[in-house]
Design goal:
Layout: E1 2-7, E2 16-19, E3 31-36, E4 39-47, E5 63-64, H1 73-86, H2 90-97, E6 111-112, H3 124-134, E7 142-147, H4 153-166, E8 170-174, H5 182-190, E9 195-199, H6 205-217, E10 223-226, E11 238-244, H7 261-272, E12 276-280, H8 285-291, E13 298-303, E14 314-319, H9 340-351, E15 355-360, E16 368-371, E17 388-390, E18 395-397, E19 404-406, E20 419-422, H10 426-436, E21 442-445, H11 453-464, E22 470-473, E23 486-492, H12 495-498, H13 505-517, E24 528-533, H14 539-546, H15 551-562, E25 570-578, H16 581-602, E26 608-620, E27 623-632, H17 635-648, E28 655-661
Parallel strand pairs: 7-12, 7-13, 8-10, 8-11, 9-10, 11-12, 14-24, 15-22, 15-23, 21-22, 23-24
Antiparallel strand pairs: 1-2, 1-4, 3-4, 3-5, 6-9, 16-20, 17-18, 18-19, 25-27, 25-28, 26-27
The structure holds zinc ion (2 copies).
Length: 667
């Protein structure tokens, strides 16, 4: 007897055929150990009782792996779809996704829902959306709720989840981060009457294994709340899927299989034949376009007003070209990197007994250090980047690897003692604010300062109860928090994004500002957001200032069409990495490029080949990376060309390939 097995190794194939030793009973989806060369590898049974391969000696399957759950047939379909779409090995994907158990896992402690009625009645607008989604029935349909911050999406989700649970089915709620918003799970579980299971990075592998088993085997309806990887939970009787903050970059996995959990979730709902709802105040361009394109079973639900008795905050653009923002010769007179307007606004807020947020999406004190005499910059030993300066630690460190070194007293090249601190991050902003507002309690909210869940909870608690006046933070601050006493928000440094060679730069700035601004004045009519920029007259910042609900999307679509970018064209990036630069360049320019050009000429004329070129950070943790970008309006040709390439590309020792379909950022 022979079975076909998807084996965990990084080559794309349709599975390998193995013989089955007598007495070993296996079904489709079972996990097994198989021989591969001289190694033992994990595999998943794809098909049983297949024909013996001709002219090849087969090897026996070693054994069944009881420490892994078996894969259900509908999940196998999902993995198969992902392996095809993302051009990743099926066996490797399954091995990446499945949790393994230890001998004696700790028993699970699900949160018992309290089943309390919702705190607020749905408004007429909310009820319309709930009814419109429910009217599509229990089978597959997809919905995008595009609602301004504070428009009450959560209540809509909650009501739809409650209805699903009442029908005896389970619901899956995906969100970018659970740990950043401890109150979220609490609020949600208060209002459902079933067990709530959470699935995120703090859950151990063994606990994941138990949740996995329970999900597949239990008949009880449950609510599963989880981050990206929860999309793989094998939930029996799945009746509803939600992807909240669908635009968020953390749904996209960077390493291994470069999947987007939002897109996988849509496929999962389709396979489970249940509805899926995406929500965002700032949908991804692709989603906005797709849900406005009259596709069958696809619905767009705009929410243009805040639901509470609060209006959207006013957005004030602060022009940093104005000389008041420049560093002054006498440091005590300087307010840089802030601006006099923003400092005055913060002073005002403090005088009114309010709290405030200051957002800057960079860590540390200075972005890089430069010698004033000879211009020397401090580079990472392992990467082609400059080191960032952290003042408290008196350290220079790399953002792409573990490398760090103490800040030297002078220039190692010329001995000059004046080292200029260029650019700024949260640490610098905090220090300047402390100097400018000596009476205020000013704390940081970033990865550098907050390293544990406990520290995060403590910091949030201290802010909620008023022990902190101003929080200076990175994007950790922008995610879903409800701060009742915050009316003023300051946003610094968004212009940095404009200098990136990324067609999504405007979209990312739009999303950042709208999301961060969403933290202001959620309970009042006089919220104000100060955005410091050197480009206040640009169209993008005018859209931001006027908070035009559709205007940004409409104008950005025109640009995307002109520049032949997504969603009108589709992209796939190929990354080739290796230890030796000349070998990588030689392979990419000597083998890969001619092969791709040949495929294009012969079979895929509608696919454009851009590159090869070095990655933005060519050397990262001692690995050199070169990249080729494929672009086409014809998604089938794009996929077929990738498939042909992978079949023809035999690889080369010491060079790895990563395929990124629908890349979120081009690195
Ligand atoms: Zn020097
Ligand atoms: Zn480095």
């Amino acid at each position: 007897m022979f079975h076909r097995v998807a084996v965990n190794y990084p080559v794309k194939n349709q599975g390998l055929t193995y013989s089955v030793p007598l007495g070993l009973e296996l079904s489709v989806g079972d996990m097994v150990d198989v021989p591969l060369g001289r190694r033992k590898e994990l595999g998943c049974i794809l098909e049983t009782n297949v024909a013996a391969p001709e002219g090849v000696a087969t090897k026996d399957i070693f054994q069944k792996r009881e420490d892994y759950p078996s894969v259900r047939s509908e999940d196998l379909k999902l993995y198969q779809w992902m392996a095809d779409y993302y051009h990743y090995g099926l066996g490797q994907l399954i091995a990446d996704c499945l949790p393994a158990t230890k001998k004696r896992p700790r028993p699970l402690k699900p949160i018992q829902g309290e089943g309390l009625p919702p705190e607020h009645q749905a408004t007429a607008v909310q009820r319309n959306v709930i009814d419109a989604i429910a009217a599509q029935g229990p089978s597959f349909s997809k919905h995008l709720i595009h609602g301004v911050t504070g428009s009450g999406k959560t209540l809509i989700f909650l009501e739809l989840v409650r209805r699903t649970l009442a029908q005896g089915k389970s619901a899956l709620y995906l969100l970018p981060e659970i740990n950043l918003t401890p109150q979220f799970v609490k609020t949600f579980s208060a209002h459902v009457n079933v067990e709530v299971m959470t699935f995120h990075s703090e859950v151990t592998a063994s606990e994941k294994y138990l949740i996995w088993k329970e999900a597949a085997e239990s008949d009880k309806p449950r609510l599963y709340i989880g981050v990206r990887s929860a999309v793989f939970l094998p939930i029996a009787h799945l009746g509803f899927v939600i992807v909240d903050e669908e635009h968020d970059g953390s749904f996209k996995q960077d390493d291994r299989c470069a999947y987007n959990a939002r897109d996988v979730a849509i496929k999962k709902a389709q396979l489970a034949n249940c509805p899926i709802v995406l929500g965002s105040a700032t949908p991804a361009m692709e989603m906005w376009h797709h849900f406005n394109s009259q596709v069958p079973k696809t619905f767009y639900h705009p929410l243009r007003e805040r639901v509470t008795d609060a209006s959207l905050p006013e957005i004030v653009l602060v022009d940093t070209k104005n000389p008041a923002n420049k560093p002054k010769p006498n440091p005590s007179e300087s307010v840089w990197p802030l601006h006099e307007t923003t400092v005055a606004a913060l002073k005002d807020a403090l005088a009114n007994g309010e709290q405030a947020l200051v957002f800057i999406n960079r860590l540390g004190f200075a972005n890089y250090i430069q010698c004033r005499a000879c211009g020397h910059q401090f580079n990472c030993k392992n990467c082609s980047t400059t080191l960032r300066f952290f003042k408290n630690k008196n350290q220079l460190s790399c953002q792409h690897c573990e490398y760090h070194e103490p800040m030297p007293p002078g220039c190692p090249k010329c001995g000059n003692l004046t080292l200029l601190q260029k650019g700024f991050g949260t640490e610098r902003v905090q220090e300047e604010l402390k100097r400018l507002l000596p009476q205020a309690s000013i704390e940081r909210f970033d990865r550098d300062e907050i390293r544990t869940f406990q520290a995060l909870q403590d910091k949030l608690e201290a802010f909620h109860c008023g022990k902190i006046d101003i929080l200076v933070g990175t994007q950790m601050l922008s995610k879903g928090h409800n701060f009742k006493r915050v009316k003023r928000v300051v946003i610094l440094g968004v212009d940095n994004q404009l200098n990136m060679p990324d067609f999504r730069a405007s979209e990312k700035i739009w999303q950042t500002v709208v999301q961060v601004a969403g933290r202001a004045g959620r309970y009042s009519h006089d919220g104000k957001v100060y955005v410091q920029t050197a480009n206040p007259e640009s169209q993008l910042f005018e859209m931001i200032r006027s908070q035009s609900f559709d205007g940004f999307y409409e104008s950005e679509m025109t640009i995307r069409k002109l520049c032949e970018c997504p969603p009108f064209y589709r992209l796939a990036a190929l990354y080739f990495s290796g230890r030796f630069q000349d070998k990588v360049i030689g392979h990419v320019t000597g083998d890969v490029e001619p092969m791709l050009r040949g495929l294009r000429t012969q079979h895929f004329p509608n696919v454009q080949i851009l590159g090869p070129r070095p990655a933005l950070i060519e050397k990262r943790a001692n690995q050199y990376t070169w990249t080729v970008l494929l672009k086409s309006q014809d998604i089938n040709q794009l996929h077929n060309m990738l498939r042909s390439f992978q079949m023809n590309w035999n690889g080369i020792s010491g060079i790895s390939l990563k395929v990124d379909v629908d890349p979120q950022h081009l690195s």
